[in-house]
Design goal:
Helix content: 55-70%
Number of strands: 0
Number of helices: 7
Largest sheet: none
Order of helices and strands: HHHHHHH
Mean pLDDT: 89
Distance between the termini: 45 Å
Radius of gyration: 22 Å
Shape: flat
Length: 183
């Protein structure tokens, strides 16, 4: 007896079901996060002068002068407009004292560093799925052991914000493509 061919167009392929990462992948993610935070803590006093340039623009923006270095002079001297806005928001919440602002920027940077680390974990698991989630764990462990990543995450600049936005953009594009969407 012959099998009948179905009528109509074939069904589109279904995206693979999302698997929960295994305990090993989650344990490595936790270890990587702890290492990241330890290294960030060790470098918490790492500060250059560049964040203070951003803070000056943010302070003038907050006080109604616009994003300028000196009120009345319309000169653009920053390359991180989103971080200027984040810094202005921090100043609106916490005040404009330099130590407070740099401390808050370092804390927010460390949080964005963790968000980027989580994005790295997710990206590796999307690209190399396994029941254990080992690829994501290994990728985040390697990233956290790269001393410059936690170092620059507490440098007071936009680096971790950019890293987090970039990695999560890539994750969303790959997941959308895998679900049959078009980026």
């Amino acid at each position: 007896m012959m099998a009948r061919a179905p009528l109509g167009p074939p069904e589109p392929p279904r995206p693979p079901a999302r698997r929960s990462p295994g305990h090993a992948g989650l344990a490595l993610l936790g270890l990587a996060s702890a290492i990241f935070l330890l290294i960030a803590w060790l470098y918490r006093n790492f500060t250059l002068d560049d964040p203070f340039i951003t803070f000056r623009y943010a302070k003038h923006l907050l006080h109604g002068h616009g994003p300028v270095y000196n009120p009345g002079e319309r000169v653009e001297g920053f390359s991180n407009p989103l971080w200027v806005l984040v810094s202005a928001a921090l100043m609106a919440l916490l005040g404009t004292e330099a130590e407070t602002v740099i401390g808050a920027a370092k804390l927010v940077g460390a949080l964005f560093g963790l968000v980027a680390l989580l994005g790295c974990w997710r990206l590796a698991n999307v690209l190399c799925p396994s029941p254990t989630g080992g690829a994501g764990g290994a990728a985040t462990l390697l990233l956290s052991l790269t001393v410059y990543f936690p170092l620059w995450s507490v440098g007071g600049l936009e680096t971790p914000l950019f890293a987090a936005a970039l990695v999560w953009l890539v994750v969303s594009l790959i997941e959308e493509e895998g679900a049959g969407g078009s980026p």
